[in-house]
Amino acid sequence: MTTLLTLNIQSYADKHGDWVDRRPLIERAIAEAQPDIVALQAVSLDSARHPDDQATQLAYSLGGYRAVFVPATTHGDGRQDGLAFLSRGPLPDVQPFALSLRDGLEDTAQRVMLCARFDLPDGPLDVFNAHFSWVAEQQGDNVTEALWALSASSGAAALVGDFNMQPDNPHLVRLREAGWTDAWAGLRGQEDGFTFVERQEPSIRIDYVWTRGLAARDIHVVLAEGEGTRRASDHAGLLARLERA
Question: I want to staple 43 with a disulfide (CB 3.0 to 4.6 A). Which of 18, 20, 84, 119 is the partner?
Answer without folding.
Answer: 84
